[in-house]
Amino acid sequence: MNLQEGEVLLVDKPYGWTSFDVVNKIRWNLKRALKLKKIKVGHAGTLDPLATGLLIICTGKRTKNVEAYMAEEKTYTGTFLLGKTTPSFDLETPYNSEYPISHITPEQIQKVAGSFIGEQTQVAPVYSAKQIGGKRAYLFAREGKEVQIKSHVITISSFTVKADRFPEIDFEISCSKGTYIRTIAQDFGVQLNSGATLIALRRTRSGQFSVDQAKPVEEWIKSINPNDAQAL
Description:
alpha+beta, Pseudouridine synthase, 2 domains, nine-stranded mixed β-sheet, two-stranded antiparallel sheet, 6 helices, 13 strands, 24% helix, 32% strand
């Protein structure tokens, strides 16, 4: 590997880490291993702290390809919980509302999933990293301030669901850049005349790259700093 010149590192992001946590950890270890004061490191597509899976990290000259990697289609697996909602649409915030689910049938669940296929507009969650006037939307949300978030166009090419663990709904979805799976969960619940929360999410593919090719952060750090006991 020529990490200083530029490489693509496929990381299996752990639960609870931000994407920037991963970038910072790898950058720190690269600077230490290469004895550099500065090195370019960036990621190609944010994963929420409560999500796991494929995070593309670029170093050196490969950081020029970040935008191209971000633009590629991505695939996720995960779970919605029907009948409950949170302000953030996931488990970052506590449940605040409950809704009936006894009227929901397996046929309705499949029909609603099918309705998401194709091009549509979506609004990012207020608890998101979306930039609003140079400030992250989640900062406004945590301060209890209302913000207007513009809708954007997304495309969903496939969306399959399994309801055998009802009220938990397992899914796999392939979608374009900028798709918020938390918003899909919210909208899914609304279309069933109920509510839903995203309780698990894992990115399994981004463009040509698969999570099966990825390694945990610890393994990458050992590759970068094999003889440094303080590397982790």
